[in-house]
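User: Fold this; tokens only.

Assistant: Input:
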Amino acid sequence: MLEQAITLGFKASNNEAEYKALLVGLRIVKDLAVKKLAIHSDSQLITSQTTREYTAKHPRMAQYLKKVHKQLEAFQTYTLSQVLWANNAYADALASLGPALDH
């Protein structure tokens, strides 16, 4: 398990922040030469769009999704699963670190 806290230099919706976090995570594990990856997300939208269950209709979301699919091509195999928000307290604690680091 890798932990990374990031801050965005722009205002972003929750979905944009989720996509940015996923993209940063994918770049990190790609740089570490990971070939098999298990991704866990509490975002039903991001998970469902990435697995092509849902279509990204908003142009910005479609751009993020395209970048995610491009990044995923670097891995031999990957799984993407949704975890319930209530079971994701650890990730929520990490998410609160980002704003704290700005000050």
